[in-house]
């Protein structure tokens, strides 16, 4: 088994991670702008969500968008962690059994830290 420092950095994996990271950052910027718009809309509306038919909609949209932003930020952290593993030479190695993760799994989920056998554990 090659040591982490002797493994070459997979160029395609690095490019894919960076492309996905760039797309996600663009999406996060848009969602942050959308959230600002929702806050502005709620400032201009009746603050009584219980009696304002539009208030509940704005609150719901804000909660939904906040959840999506949180999910996107978590995925960005996963991409950053994958980039660190790539630089350290441990990308594509299962954290449990220390065997290579199947290329198909990394294609489907580039941030995977475990092989399929250990994914459910």
What does it look like?
Residues 89-117 form the Zinc finger DksA/TraR C4-type domain. It is a single chain. With 121 residues, this protein is mainly α. The chain folds into two domains: 8-89, Helix Hairpins (Orthogonal Bundle); 92-121, no CATH class. The protein is 65% helix and 0% strand. The chain has four helices and no strands. It has helices spanning 11-43, 53-88, 103-108, 116-119. Helix 1 packs antiparallel against helix 2. The chain is elongated and about 55 Å long.
List the helices and strands and how they pair.
Elements: H1 11-43, H2 53-88, H3 103-108, H4 116-119
Helix pairs in contact: 1-2
Brief summary of the model shown:
InterPro entries: Znf_DskA_TraR (IPR000962). The chain is mostly helical and 121 residues long.
Mean pLDDT score: 84
Number of helices: 4
CATH topology of the largest domain: Helix Hairpins
What portion of the residues fall into strands of 2 or more residues? under 5%
How many DSSP E strands?
0
Helix-residue proportion: 55-70%
Q: What low-confidence regions span 5 or more consecutive residues with pLDDT below 50?
A: 1-9
CATH C-level class of the largest domain is: Mainly Alpha
Category by helix and strand content: mainly alpha
Label the CATH architecture of the largest domain.
Answer: Orthogonal Bundle
- Give me the strand/helix succession: HHHH
Which of globular, elongated, flat, extended, rod-shaped describes the shape? elongated
Q: What is the end-to-end distance?
A: 24 Å
What is the domain total for the residues? 2
Largest pleated sheet:
none
Rg over CA atoms: 20 Å
């Amino acid at each position: 088994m090659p040591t982490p420092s002797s493994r070459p950095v997979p160029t395609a994996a690095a490019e894919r991670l960076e492309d996905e990271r760039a797309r996600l950052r663009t999406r996060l910027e848009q969602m942050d702008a959308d959230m600002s718009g929702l806050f502005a809309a709620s400032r201009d509306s009746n603050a009584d969500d219980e009696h304002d038919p539009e208030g509940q909609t704005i609150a719901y949209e804000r909660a939904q968008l906040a959840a999506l932003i949180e999910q996107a930020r978590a995925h960005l952290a996963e991409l950053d962690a994958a980039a660190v593993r790539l630089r350290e030479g441990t990308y594509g190695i299962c954290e449990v059994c220390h065997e290579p993760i199947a290329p198909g799994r990394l294609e489907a989920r580039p941030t995977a830290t475990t092989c399929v056998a250990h994914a459910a554990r």
